[in-house]
Every structure is written in structure tokens, then in C-alpha cells.
Amino acid sequence: MRLSRVTTAIRAGIAVALFTGVLFLSGCGNSTGNVSGKVTFKGAPLKGGTIGFVDTDGRTTGTAAMEGDGSFSVKNLVVGEYTVLVETNSVKPPEESGGFGGGMPGKGAPPPAVKKGMGAPPPGAVLPEGYKASSPADAAAASAAKHFVLIPSIYAKKETSNLKYTVVAGDQTKDFDLKP
Q1: Do 85 and 35 fall within a single domain?
Q2: Based on the domain organization, do 36 and 12 belong to the same domain?
Q3: What pLDDT tens digit does each residue of the chain (180 aa) get?
Q4: Residue of 6, 71, 133, 168 with fewest CB within 10 Å of its CB?
Q5: Do both 35 and 63 map to the same domain?
Q6: CA-wise closest residue to 69 among 48, 93, 41
Q7: Do 41 and 64 lie in a common domain?
Q8: Contact present, 53 and 62 (Cβ < 8 Å)
Q9: What is the CA radius of gyration of the chain?
Q10: Model pLDDT, residue 34
Q11: HEC-encoded secondary structure of 113-152
């Protein structure tokens, strides 16, 4: 009888140890972090675009749109090393469309290219307060012109971005200042 109590106690101890080990191992690798911060270029906030976190396997696991003050927030990133990508082309104003380009009509050359949103402010133009565009296309172009900042293309590609970040469990703040 005494041996049976010892055996039962040993079995119970082993079961508790195994259960604890399973709980411990199931939590490993599943820890996540939330990253927020600001993205600036030459010290000035990027007013639009996207920030993305690419894991060591090359998968983009989290993205966020940047707000007008350059702020962003990416939630539930698995703890680990990341390459950070930043792009602003998504808020780039419309450019000249296809067309034939160059030349003057009537001189044997094709007509000049047609510009999307004719009359829209040029990229980077400072718009006066209260400016109202005359058409929806012009309004979209004007809004994009306010938010677009041209940044070096290296930041948009995982092969060339030099922005790295290690995500830890919990909330964290990380600012990124892009250089020309």
C-alpha cells in the first residue's frame, strides 16, 4: 500500500511537470509586441504613406498608414528581428499620363501628354488655407500634394532598407528618421 502511494505521488508530480512544461512551451514564440512612433525625413514628419515590418523570413507581417504628423501604430507583431519599410508613393499626386509626349500639335509631332487633374497644384506646392479644388480629381490631387514627400526608394525595398528593429513583448515606441 505504501508503494502505491509513492507511485501515485510520483505520477502526479510527473503529470504536473509535463503540464507546466506544455504551458511554458506553448507560450514561447507566440509573444507579441505593439510598435508605435513617428517617421520623419530630414527631421520633418512624413505626412502620409505606409510603414511595414518584414520578418527574417521575408514576410511582411504588419503595416500601418502614417498619419499627418508622421505617427503610426502596428499591433501584434511576433517578437523578433524586422526590416522596416517606408513608402510615400501611395500619396503621390497624379503625374502625366501615357500620351505621346513632346512636340507641338500641327507640326507633324504627336500632341503633348495630357496631365491628369489639369489645373491641380504641382507636387510640393504650398496650398493657401481654404483652397478648394474645382473638381473631384483636382481635390484628390490637392490632398495628395499636401501629404506627399519624396523619399529615397531604398526605404521601400526589403533588400535595400537599412532600417532594422527588434520587437519585444508589450507596447513600445520607436521613431524612424530617414536620411537622404
Answers
A1: yes
A2: no
A3: 555 665 555 555 554 444 444 444 444 556 999 999 999 999 999 999 999 999 999 999 999 999 999 999 999 999 999 999 999 999 887 764 444 344 444 444 444 444 455 566 777 777 777 776 667 766 666 666 677 899 999 999 999 999 999 999 999 999 999 999
A4: 6
A5: yes
A6: 48
A7: yes
A8: yes
A9: 27
A10: 98
A11: CCECCCCCCCCCCCCCCCCCCCCHHHHHHHHHHHHCCCCC
State the residue range of the domain holding 4.
1-30
Beta carbons within 8 Å of 72's beta carbon, 6+ residues apart:
36, 37, 38, 39, 51, 64, 65, 66
Structural contact between residues 149 and 41, judged by C-beta atoms closer than 8 angstroms: yes
User: What integer pLDDT is reported at residue 75 of this predicted model?
Assistant: 97
Which candidate, 37, 64, 60, places its Cα nearest to that of 50?
A: 64
DSSP 8-state symbol, 96: B
Hunting for cell 517606408 — which residue is that?
86
Which 3 state secondary structure label does DSSP give 54? Answer: strand
Asked if 68 contacts 147 with a C-beta cutoff of 8 angstroms, the reply is: yes
Q: Where are the alpha helices (DSSP H) in 28-170?
A: 136-147
Residues 7 and 79 in one domain: no
Q: Which position has the grid cell 517578437?
A: 79
**In the structure grid, which three cell numbers stand for residue 104, read together?**
507641338
Which residue type does 128 have?
P
Residues 24 and 70 placed together within one structural domain of the fold: no
